[in-house]
Amino acid sequence: MAGETDLDTLLRSMQPELQPGEFVFCTLPDEARDLRLAWQMCAEFEPIGQFREAEGLTVIVARSQADEAQLHYTSIFSMITLTVHSSLDAVGFLARITAELAAHQISVNAISAYYHDHLFVPRDRAQNALEILQAIAGQASA
Fold first, then answer.
1. pLDDT of residue 119
2. What does the radius of gyration of the chain's CA atoms come to, in whole angstroms?
């Protein structure tokens, strides 16, 4: 099933949901550059996302798992899921949302998965971000 591409429909239907928990972005140690070793390390915890960069493997994990594995992180995030099934080909959806959050001085790390977009916002700004997203959806419905 293809996701939605119409910007107005996406904004009107996004239904943001604050997910439970705290999340952090970590990079695995240099020895994890070997993909087999990286997968073994990831088996010790359950990353909800990962991305390989030239400098190393970035993982997004629950803060508690990062603490248990003694992984370094610099910021703590909350995750907001935009529950509309957005197409990976949609144009302007995240641009509209991130611009509005930026106007309120809220940083956002957006991850697009096959069905939904997920926003990682500073833990202490999560409720404010959720209210802003709900207002965007309400304005699009009007």
1. 98
2. 16
